[in-house]
Write a structure and sequence with these properties.
By secondary structure, the chain is α/β, with parallel strands linked by helices. It folds into four domains: 159 residues, P-loop containing nucleotide triphosphate hydrolases (Rossmann fold, 3-Layer(aba) Sandwich), CATH 3.40.50.300; 177 residues, 3-Layer(aba) Sandwich (Rossmann fold); 226 residues, N-(1-d-carboxylethyl)-l-norvaline Dehydrogenase, domain 2, CATH 1.10.1040; 35 residues, 6-Phosphogluconate Dehydrogenase, domain 3 (Single alpha-helices involved in coiled-coils or other helix-helix interfaces), CATH 1.20.5.320. It has 26 helices and 14 strands. The strands form three sheets. The protein has a seven-stranded mixed sheet with strand order 8-7-6-9-10-11-12, with helices on both faces. Helix 1 packs across helix 7 and helix 18 packs across helix 19. The protein is elongated, with a radius of gyration of 31 Å. The relative contact order is 0.07. Bound molecules: 6-phosphogluconic acid. The site of 6-phosphogluconic acid has 13 residues, from helix 15 and helix 18.
């Protein structure tokens, strides 16, 4: 990969000598930053005046443009004192993943003596001191002590910088492998690690590298120390291992080899509370931690997932160029990746994403059941769903159509799949989190519990014998009515999902941007849809989508069909819990005077829990002796 090697340090540290030697050794062009000063700067300097930041800005931009231009052809070495971080930021602008920094470091006296030994050179000690005063030591550069020969310095630079990888991927499961290929395709030099387990996981990384041409530059390891050592500092290591305890074990395995300011990124479906704990723990060890949701499955990880990072903002900015590059792009070609917020907020929204995903999947499953009960076979259902794409398109709708059409012999494959739905726990966590936060995410619970009901296959068979439906007639609903009921429930699903995010944001002071979250979910992730695209604009105006004029109109338009479809299901003994719940929830959330007064009275009756009245100031608590 082409790169710009910036060599920095105070005047007299030997930048030009080392830069020239290095360029020669690597057979790439050399540029001395001082040759690019505009006339005004040269005039100012030759009159003995120091340059200020304003004078420097244009010059640094020129060097940045030079670096960019050079990168279109070749690597190069550029030397520049670049004493302050903001100067280096300008030099890095838009090319930070392709720049390497070498900082030549020496003590004041050593440099002072060295400079003043040079013939025709004199640097007053105040001038050198002012350079040391201005110097903000870079955290990310390769720091080279200049008290050795130039040959040794070159050797150290070559060892320390040239052959190291920019990004590490730990764990080569399905997602880890796809992310590696995605990073490599995007020009990043990566190091890949997979553990060795005798006879079970042997040479996984090496074999993976050997089987994919895009990984020719990548390095492959099953030894943690070697893997860590192969990375440029501060190291950036993405963990793609099973969520849960494994993450903690892996962190402990890595810690002895990491250095201060290294960055670990957990890209699994981790619990958001654990992500905060891990971030705090690693902070105490001087290591940065980013928890990130990654959605899109194997295909997404390979060609562009939706990425939801959170935690340490400073560390995020260092990995942003990598994540932005590999992420899916929205319709404005912006990366479907954004800094979500502090702590475990990235994993929180990924968890809610999965909750919304459970519901979208459940609704489609219910729709298929209903359309089948109304007399359509699976090919006909697929054709019906195909027509829905123009108004209700989504990734999950598309894959459901493919699934319905898949045949095995003369029969539909899906008919042969055992009807027990699995889960890996994120829907469970979403339901727990909404209960803990006091948010009524009833659709997520209904979709989760439907999966749990499905798991009681044997009991379902047994009870079906006692309670077999007497109904044999076809369901009296049209495809349009089913579509409208489906759309109604989807709006409620998205209302509930974002409500949960918004309430968590308030509770934890995360200050999450709902529009931006919807935006990064418009591509790459499992719940991407045209509805999600609409929500990007809706959330710019409100946090409650049920107050948006357009969506109010849609709900009003679809509600009659939703009522009819759900009623027909009930009358015909068809289970459609998420569609049903969408109406119950909607009726609940739009009821001005609910039956909760009865609940309050009951609580007060048996437990003296007291109640508030609507005919006084509403602050006082009342208790009644009810009998
Ligand atoms: C995604 C998916 C992904 C995975 C879930 C499914 O966004 O790419 O949500 O994270 O498919 O783990 O979870 P269940 O096994 O619980 O359905």
């Amino acid at each position: 990969m082409k790169k710009v090697i910036y060599i920095m340090g105070v005047s007299g540290c030997g930048k030009s000598t080392i830069g020239k030697l290095l360029a020669q050794e690597l057979n790439i062009p050399f540029f001395d930053g001082d040759d690019f000063h505009p006339k005004a700067n040269i005039k100012k300097m030759s009159s003995g005046q120091a340059l200020n930041d304003e004078d420097r800005q244009g010059w640094l931009e020129t060097l940045n443009a030079l670096a960019k231009k050079q990168l279109t052809k070749n690597s190069c070495v550029i030397v520049c004192s670049a004493l302050k971080q903001k100067y280096r930021d300008t030099l890095n602008l838009d090319i930070e993943t392709q720049t390497k920094w070498v900082y030549l470091s020496g003590a004041f006296n050593q440099i002072y003596n060295r400079v003043n030994k040079r013939p025709e050179h004199f640097m007053p000690s105040e001038l050198l001191q002012s350079q040391f005063d201005a110097l903000e030591e870079p955290k990310d550069a390769l720091k080279i002590d200049i008290t050795t020969t130039p040959e040794n310095i070159i050797k150290k630079i070559k060892n320390g910088l040239m052959d190291k990888s920019a990004f590490g991927l730990f764990g080569l499961g399905v997602m880890g492998k796809s992310l590696c290929r995605n990073l490599a395709k995007n020009g990043f030099k990566i190091a890949m690690f997979n553990r060795h387990v005798d006879t079970i996981e042997v040479d996984v990384a090496k074999n993976f590298k050997a089987n994919h041409s895009e990984l020719s530059e990548a390095t492959a390891f099953d030894d943690i120390a070697a893997f860590v050592n192969a990375l440029q500092t501060p190291r950036k290591i993405m963990l793609m291992v099973h969520a849960g305890k494994t993450i903690d074990y892996v962190i402990e395995d890595l810690l002895p080899y990491l250095s201060k300011n290294d960055i670990l990124i957990d890209g699994g479906n981790s619990n958001y509370l654990k992500t905060k704990e891990r971030g705090d723990y690693l902070k105490s060890k001087g290591i940065h931690f980013i928890g990130t949701g990654v959605s899109g499955g194997e295909e997404g990880a390979l060609n562009g997932p939706s990425i939801m990072p959170s935690g340490d903002l400073e560390a995020y900015n260092k990995v942003k160029p990598f994540l932005d590059k590999i992420a899916a792009k929205d319709k404005n070609n912006l990366p479907c990746c954004t800094y979500v917020g502090p702590e475990g907020s990235g994993h929180f929204i990924k968890m809610v994403h999965n909750g919304v995903e459970y519901v979208e999947m459940q609704l489609l499953a219910e729709v298929c059941t209903i359309l089948e009960a109304s007399g359509q076979n699976l090919d006909e259902i697929a054709n019906t769903l195909e027509t829905w794409k123009s108004t209700a398109n989504s990734y999950l709708l598309e894959i459901t159509i493919d699934i319905l059409r898949k045949k095995e012999g003369n029969d539909w494959l899906v008919k042969k799949i055992l009807d027990k739905a699995g889960n890996k726990g994120t829907g469970n966590w979403t339901t727990i989190a909404s209960a803990e936060l006091g948010v009524p995410s009833t659709l997520i619970a209904s979709a989760l519990f439907s999966r749990y009901i499905s798991f009681y296959k044997e009991e379902r068979i047994q009870l079906n014998k006692h309670f077999k439906s007497e109904n044999t007639s076809a369901l009296n609903v049209t495809s349009i009515e089913v579509l409208e009921a489906y759309q109604f429930a989807r709006i409620i699903n998205h209302y509930q999902g974002f409500k949960l995010i918004s309430e968590a944001s308030n509770k934890f002071s995360w200050d999450l941007n709902l529009s931006e979250i919807a935006r990064i979910w418009t591509n790459g992730c499992i719940i991407r849809s045209t509805l999600m695209e609409e929500l990007v604009a809706v959330f710019k105006e409100t946090t409650n989508i049920l107050t948006n004029t357009q969506l109010i109109a849609s709900i009003k338009e679809y509600k009659a069909s939703a009522k009819k479809v759900v009623s027909q299901c009930i009358l015909n003994d068809i289970t459609a819990p998420s569609l049903g719940e969408s109406i119950h929830f909607f009726n609940g959330i739009t009821t001005e005077n609910s039956s909760a007064n009865i609940i309050q009275a009951q609580r007060d009756y048996f437990g003296a829990h007291t109640y508030k009245r609507i005919d006084d100031d509403g602050v006082k608590s009342h208790h009644t002796i009810w009998k």
